[in-house]
Amino acid sequence: MNSILRIILQRLGLGLLTLFVVSIVIFVAVNLLPGDFAELILGQGATPETVATIRRDLGLDQPLVLRYFDWLRGMLTLDLGTSFSQLNRVSNLGGGSDTTTVVEQIAPRLSNTLFLAAVTASIAVPFSITLGVLAALYRNTAFDRSANIFTLSSISSPEFFMAYVLILFLAVLNPILPSLSNIYQGMPFWERVEKSLLPALTLTLVVTAHMMRMTRAAIINLLASPYIEMARLKGLSPMRVIVKHALPNALAPIINVIALNLAYLITGVVVVEVVFVYPGIGQLFVDSVKIRDIPVVQACCLIFAAAYILLNLTADILSILSNPRLRHPK
Amino acid sequence: MPDPLVKIRNLHIEGRSDESWSPIINGVDLDLNKGEVLGLIGESGAGKSTIGLAAMGFTRDGVRISDGTVEFDGIDMVNASAAKKRALLGKRIAYVAQSAAASFNPAHRLIDQHTEGPVQHGVASRAQSQEDGIELYRKLRLPNPDQIGFRYPHQVSGGQLQRAMTAMAMSCRPDLIIFDEPTTALDVTTQIEVLAAIREIVEEFDTAAIYITHDLAVVAQMADKIKVLLRGDEVEEADTRTMLSSPKEDYTKSLWAVRSFERPEKPPAEPDAVPVVSVKGVTAAYGKVDVLHDVSFDIHAGRTVAVVGESGSGKSTAARCITGLLPPREGHVEFEGEAMPLDYKARSKEQLRQVQMIYQMADTALNPRKTIAQIIGRPVEFYMGLKGSALRDRVDQLLDQIELDPAQFRNRLPSELSGGQKQRIGIARALAAEPRFIICDEVTSALDQLVAEGILRLLARLQDELGLSYMFITHDLATVRAISDEVVVMKDGKVVDRGPKTEMFRPPHHAYTDLLLSSVPEMDPDWLDNLLAERGVDNIGDAAVDKM
């Protein structure tokens, strides 16, 4: 067990290191973006003096390195700073002192995105693994081919197209599900699930192909191994040979593909959010880039990076644990 | 006379290569009665396993039964539905595979795999089957039978796995078991245990068996009758004693004769002669664990020193120390009286040239994308600096030396050669450096006996012509007898015994040498019985090793 613990700690350390490197990349890249918040916000009325004032107020006149460490310290204490756009609104409207922090702005959006990802995953993962197992079982039959064609064409079509097809069939022609996913805080759980079902189904179509095909390939890859031949020579049913004898040994690659797709569900669903007006983090991210709201953009980037790293780390650890040699050392 | 349990008539099997079907088995007949053991022998490619599997009504992917009938207890196994066959497989016909390590599912415990058959076939409940499994483990003399089943395959040694697999085959008390080379991958001392266990349990339950092997001495111990196969054809069949004492066909006789090759031993080297290679007090470790302990031996000019021992005894590690691939932790290696740097990276080109290697798996030791001329030409160019036509002439000369026609082989790829030819290319590549010393690491163990003998004869001839010295790593004592001048016996990383060959093969031996020697199966059907009687039931194979 010690060796597993050591491997996990090692991976965890490497994950943190990666996150640190990524934070530098994000910071530098975001600050290299052309355009300046102050100039953008002032528009025609930008005089050198007013630009300088706003820059001073926001700390943009400080040297880059100093600002990086400032930001890093904030990140470590979960103080993501104050959103520029909120600042701007407060000063324009002459509002009170309760300016919105980045955390307050991101938190509800992130939880919405995680909710959608969770709903999608709980449909997509069992669905694609089952489909993959069946495709491996009935390999090279009509079922296998149609499953492949179906999943491949859904991954190849643009997401918005799949979204509109689903809206057409499930919301317009047969009004079963709501086409708008305008969820809000405090909405009852099942209503939220119902509202997010259409975007979740769209995303399921997008992510199924990878997972299903990897499941199928990983299983078929093992079918020539001596222990599968042994299982067949023991007179076991083909289903049992695959589920009981091939699948447990094929888990590592499947887990890794699942992790990649889950990461995609958290970081890459802007288009689907827009189609269904779903208030997720993707939309917030795009809006913030548009107005050069640097603190929000940076925080979103870092969250995306962390999600990728964390999910891959989990996948790594799970695939290590799926290996009986490591779970049960000699 | 009742109908036989297995009745195969005019069996034709084809295998697909590229787009066409080519024959593997050409009309073989086979009868097996209840409780009888048939030995199927032949070289690789003879179709032994294919026939064994066909007796179960099973063919591997890309193989089909094209003609003939296979009947098991009156049931037509060729045309039976998949479901009908499944009802028989595992329950009435069981299979024991060559490599138990690869044939047990790594993800499940042994006992779970054992009980799966009986439970799925509805023969016994899980609890009953588990109890029975433990009882079988005890019968097969597995250590710690109550607990061993609850381990995963990787936690159990090869010989034990092979016995656990025999137990698994027995789990439904089948009428027929196919043993497909069950002891080929095992050390001699372990092999005895497995052989004894298999024979005992087959006799106890009166199970019929088809025992597939390429080792004649093994089949002599196990089978009531023997069928010899050659490239998909039956050569002859007879009961074991007749077959051993008076084989009819020339091919069978040639198989029997392979073990007779033995070169005369050379006189011992002069006492004051400087050895070509001298290993002095070498201790080596992988990571923090020492795997070699104070190993010393000399290899003299023109001599062959055979290093023998079971897997894990440190034979190959010693070779890695000599080549400098694994720098020893203590001690050093001398070449013609001069200490060589421990690490190969610190050695001069000349020092590297003098020590060459030939590997066990010629398949993986040759670059599959280079032609034979390129493979052999590379060391010629690197060490000798030859180029152009001089290089080509030298490659041709080397091919002549290994008895392959240069015009025919020069431009071929390794994949276009047979196993024996590939090993010859491995030899030519080592010769290309014009070394004084060659390490041969199990060079014949992956080859059939006839082919292996050819390689041994070639190595012996080259030694006489070129004055080479060999370090010959092997676990096969017949090979040792055939080629060596001196023998070094290793166990657990130590040299336990050494001396000239004649002395080593003549009693009295060191206890471990004696165990190794007496464990090599002999072509005498009573050999195993006599040995077991001599050693006592609890003191065979592994158990005997553990006591030392």
From TrEMBL, chain A:
Gene Ontology MF terms in the entry: dipeptide transmembrane transporter activity
Q: How does it sit in the membrane?
A: Multi-pass membrane protein
The residues covered by the ABC transmembrane type-1 domain are 110-315
Keyword Cell membrane, does the record have it? yes
Looking at the record's lineage, which domain of life comes first?
A: Bacteria
Task: Give UniProt keywords alphabetically.
Answer: Cell membrane, Membrane, Transmembrane, Transmembrane helix, Transport
Subcellular location, record wording: Cell membrane
Please report the name of this protein according to its UniProt entry. Answer: ABC transporter permease
Which species?
Salibaculum griseiflavum
From TrEMBL, chain B:
User: Do you know which InterPro entries this protein is assigned to?
Assistant: AAA+_ATPase, ABC_Ni/Peptide_Import, ABC_transporter-like_ATP-bd, ABC_transporter-like_CS, Oligopep_ABC_C, P-loop_NTPase
A single Gene Ontology biological process assigned to it is: peptide transport
Where is this chain's protein located in or outside the cell?
Cell inner membrane
Q: What is its main location?
A: membrane
- Domain (ABC transporter): give its ranges: 6-256, 277-517
Asked whether the keyword Plastid is assigned, the reply is no
One of the record's GO cellular component terms: plasma membrane
Q: Which UniProt keywords apply?
A: ATP-binding, Cell inner membrane, Cell membrane, Membrane, Nucleotide-binding, Translocase, Transport
In the record, what terms sit under GO molecular function? ATP binding; ATP hydrolysis activity
Look up and give the membrane topology term: Peripheral membrane protein
Q: Record's superkingdom?
A: Bacteria
- Please tell me whether the keyword Transport is annotated for this protein: yes
Q: Which family does it belong to?
A: Belongs to the ABC transporter superfamily.
Q: What is this protein called?
A: ABC transporter
Please give the organism: Salibaculum griseiflavum
